[in-house]
């Protein structure tokens, strides 16, 4: 495929994607919400009104006020500042974990679908084992074995998310390896790695990206759940899950400690789901024709 042909094929796809996003108004709500959350995380040191780690017992469990917009926790720390800094951890864990799972899962899925035989059976057997465990339970077991840290949390969540990417990558690979352009490349003497990486991967990467945007929301929920039970980033670092856990002890007297981090998780997951649905509708030609 020449550069001109590749450019010509990409331009209609980009145009179709843009038109589909324009028709789906909810996609812009998701994009806007996600953009605000990302900007808040990036500029957290400048947006946070207080030091998220600074303790002041004199302001312990202060309700929302003009000085502390979202109140303070049991150590006198500003909830808004911790909420903004907590976005950094949640987005970092979700993005890196899904990126790792997407890379490993897609590679394994393409290899399984292209090679077939015993290798396919072995890889899919491992996938079935991973899928036999609930996501949270599997993440809990891995995080408990590795210990509580940011790196181990990312590894634990990435392991739980590999299996769906393997399945999503394997199915189109089985169909694509029989296509004429792959057969032509094989006839020209191209090796299997070139066929898988240059000819098959670009034709199924859109499905993987859509799944990644949807499962990033799942990764953020898993991070919050693991942090809630004490297997996330160690304190005093601010994370949404740990904030909910700390506020759970005072939920009757200080409702703001659990409500605001929960709303932050809800809005982030909603934004990612809206974006993922929009990308899926834009990429899938059947869904585009149904909505048009």
From TrEMBL:
The UniProt keyword set, sorted, is: Cell membrane, Membrane, Transmembrane, Transmembrane helix, Transport
One GO biological process term: transmembrane transport
| A GO cellular component entry from the record | plasma membrane
- Principal location listed in the UniProt entry: membrane
Q: Where in the cell is it found?
A: Cell membrane
The UniProt entry, under InterPro entries, shows:
BP-dependent_transpt_permease, MetI-like, MetI-like_sf, OppC_N
Domain named ABC transmembrane type-1: residues:
87-276
| Cross-referenced CDD domains | TM_PBP2
- Transmembrane stretches, start-end: 26-48, 91-116, 122-146, 196-217, 224-243, 255-276
- Describe its membrane topology: Multi-pass membrane protein
Work out whether the entry's keyword set contains Transmembrane helix: yes
Regarding protein family, the annotation reads: Belongs to the binding-protein-dependent transport system permease family.
Q: What is this protein called?
A: ABC transporter inner membrane protein
